[in-house]
Amino acid sequence: MHKDTDMAGHAASSTHHVVPLKIYYAIFAILMTLTGITVAVAYVDLGPLNSVVALVIACVKALLVVLFFMHLKYSTRLIKLTAIAGLYWMIILLALTLSDYLTRGWGTFGQQVAVK
Amino acid sequence: MHNHSTAHPALAHHFDSLDQQQEAASLGMWVFLLTEILFFGGLFLVYTIYRGWYPQAFASASHHLDIPLGTINTAVLIGSSLTMAMAVHAAQLNSRKGIIVFIVLTMVLGTVFLGIKGLEYSHKFHEHLIPGLHFEYAAAPQFVRHAQIFFSLYFVMTGLHAAHMIVGMGLMTWMLIWTARGVIGNGYYSPVEIVGLYWHFVDIVWIFLFPLLYLIGRHA
Amino acid sequence: MATEFPAHHYLNDGYGIKSWLLTRDHKRIALLYLIAVTFFFFVGGAFAVLIRLDLATPPGDLVSDDTYNQLFTMHGVIMVFFFLIPAIPAILGNFLVPLMIGAKDLAFPKLNLLSWYIYIIGGLMGVYVLLTGGLDTGWTMYAPFSTRFSTTRVVPAALAIFVTGFSSILTGLNFIVTIHKMRAPGMGWFNMPLFLWSTYATSLINILGTPVIAITALLVAVERLFRFGFFDPALGGDPVLFQHLFWFYSHPAVYIMILPAMGVISELVAAFCRKPVFGYSFVAFSSLGIAVLGFLVWGHHMFVAGQSVYASLIFSMLSFLVAIPSAIKVFNWTATMYKGSVSWQTPMLYAIGFIGLFTIGGLTGLFLASIGVNVHVTDTYFIIAHFHYIMVGGTIMGYLGGLHYWWPKISGRLYPEGLSKLSAAIIFIGFNLTFFPQFILGYLGMPRRYHAYPPEFQVLNVLSSAGASILGVGYLLPMFYLAWSLRYGKPAGANPWGASGLEWTTTSPPPTENFPVTPTVTESPYHYPSPVVKHVA
Amino acid sequence: MFDIPLFPERASTIAGEVDALYFFLVGLSGFFALLIATLIVAFAIRFRRRHADEVGAQVHGGLLLEIGWTVIPFIITMVIFFWGAKVYFAMANPPDETLNIYVVGKQWMWKVQHVTGQREINELHVPVGRPVRLIMTSEDVIHDFSIPAMRIKADVIPGRFVQIWFEPTNAGTYQIFCAEYCGTQHSAMIGRVSVMEPAAYQAWLSGGTAEGSLASRGEKLFADLACNTCHRPDARGRGPWLAGVFGHSVQLQDSSVVTADENYLRESIMQPAAKVTAGFQPVMPAFQGLITEEQLLALIEYVKSLSPAEQPQAQPAGTQR
What is the ipTM, given to two decimal places? Predict the structure, then answer.
């Protein structure tokens, strides 16, 4: 008895989708493997890439949890949009604050003292 | 699936159908998680800034965290996410027994995680690594000040994470009671589903905390 | 001819104290908020009066400097967190969102009641702070003053803000889910009253911004209690980081305060011109635009705070962009009046006052977005004047306008028209007299939060103080005549204004379930002549 | 009594530029505020409701108008943005040659330290016509050094230096305010700038001080604190020799490069481990909490005074050795 123009429709509603247990087991196995990899890779010297690799692996793991354990893959557009909004605002918070921190060292305009 | 003309016992008076009610609950939890993302987002921002300012102190301080314990905890928490997903699965299939078994399993794993976390905290206490309180950092005295920032973040981030887990386990206890009483079942399972969403979110927070806190500069 | 009071309505559906304190009816919860928020409004207002009295003389003879610092701090904390942020959403929003979309209640009625209790707990913590030593950090609580130097009750105050934040988060969450999931048949997004668009946009800010202030307040409390280093430079922290986190919420919070008022004004202008709002979709999307852009501009509070000059430039440019959706709204309201049937009833007077004062507030925002001028006027009375034009000239005008407009719906009775017009006029005059001189003081350089000031600023300060006392009278009047009307006002009937909108199709006051049968919507919310009951008087 | 100031004095080169933009904004705001006010009042009268059942014209909108009042404000705001940015550019960029003066804020006073050795409290003497650069820090909380007549202002932050500059154009005295709330006596943290004609300023300078220049005080401190046992010109020093460091780039242990400005020198004294010069060990003790802000200023000024070609010697007036 309600209308929601921004929903894909009830057929895709998360409340009805039953994910086969096999998929859960597979995701669990991948998550454990990635945990192992992230620990192992920490001991390899990749220079500044260490942090990048650790974060990429963490993002992949988080994505797997969100898509499968949290059923986002099977959810409505509205819920997908909600999840993306969280990511987007988090990026705003980080990016605009970093726009201050990353440029503080630049000094004032053209004030950078001549190098050498 | 549901017959709209005979009201389901779990249907609240202001909803037209159980579908509408369950969708509202699920959307409500996602919106709440949106809030949680920004809540932890503030902490991750503070972390990012100071790690950028004091990379060596952070790497040095990170060496005082216990990787085996952290790794075990990561595995335990991911395992609890699996059992939580299976509890929701059981709920979808209207298996009360399944709900109870898997929620209890999830709570056991959650308790193991908190136990290990408590063990780590007590190690830090004995190693004088609590900032602001007899903090000692003889290994690399030049980092004593900035290592305290690391440990401040460590305790606040993991502490708030643990607090979320305790809340989650409280909610699960509630789910057990509701399931035992028969409130949940017969096609009504959105409380279990949204508690599951919350628990998985808490798991995701840890997935980021683990590498950011435990695994800095380990190759050095 | 005489309008009958309905036999059954939400107000007489149970009389005991329990029927109120345990109610899940959104309309009763709205009234619970009305009582609590009004209490805090007058507490905050009393502080404002004391501040202005003290500033009537250059040395500030009324109170000591410590007391003065506590007065402006508590004025700010109470007005921002306990009045402006909850006022329109929690009172009018709670009352109207289900009525306007044709629902029986909000999606989560128990959560709604919980929000009110959280608000009350936060408020009691605020009162506790007041009674046990106060707070002198300014509502901004800048570190390291708040985390180390202040000798007042910073930790309970920070926790009060932390707790109260969850009240607005949960209210916002409730509105978002309700608007998505509970609309009556036929009520598409573009059949929604504009008040709902602005409430939706406000709720977005609430759920996205409030958690950041919550964690920031928590970090302040932790740093102060345990000497954990986050913001204090003595511990290796950066006080500017606190400001980033603080303003990430607190700038959008300005839009939490003004957006609902803008929604109210859209309703008032339409109802009292009996005309659809000009450019409906532009007004609707400008609300969302403000909510989204509002998150990108917080750095304009920090142009002199030691932020990088490059970041300042970025924030300055983004700040100008927010001016555009605000301008769109003002122009569309004005255009709505063209060829309308403009009534001069009290709510419309507030709407006209709002448009004028908000225009000034918005235009002076351009001064602040522009870095070259901002450096000179920031931290002066120019800022004070600017944001009071938005908060008082905007939000409170919108709030009072909305309260008068929906009062017949809320109470079922009419308020005295003559007295209400008089108080609207007093408020308008008192407001301008209070705050316009402060623009001049600000450009002269008088810093904000000064207990004592150089004698050459006295004349302008006296004008401002005189205005404040007029404004105070203007705010007291409605409280009395609205209370009076509860008993003695004429029964209003379902639709005393001849307005359109679902809320006017049900009785005044509405029944507990809002509508006898779930309405089906077939028309835009601003269809005139109103398809519903005609004006009866 | 009727001598009410409505506009601030204008005493620096930048003040005119700020005021020009301000007047433009006042004009613009006046125009739009009057436009809106006139329209709403005129519509309210012209289209007032004449009988109870009257309704307005059912007009829904006009795309051209909407585009118009979206695009025109956008253009106007971008003009203001670029104008404001231009003024700010001038404000943030001190000229190459400036008279440098150190300012330390503390609850609730301004301590001014001239390079030539003079110290003042809540007073600042500067000459007309010479760009002045204030290098400022705070001992406790955040303060804000504001001179309305010069149209400049900056938060003074503990733990680092911030700078502002201005070039006074008129002799006279002007208000200094603390513009960032800093506690009990915030409103008492005020002072005066005395802008003096160059001759008068020279006379004031020669009033002199017994302690010698700031750099010479720094040199003495450099020896007292035994800095010179490690920071020495010969190869036996465990720390880098500091002559000519200031204003140049320094290579760090992690092979990044920083510019040795005042903030870098401050950090390297207070928290030496934060940025260690390549080729040296992090053996220097942290002086955080051991020296005052004023001693720190003296040390920095001494390091700045060391020019690369010369042997250690305090620059302008190295009298005490």
Answer: 0.92
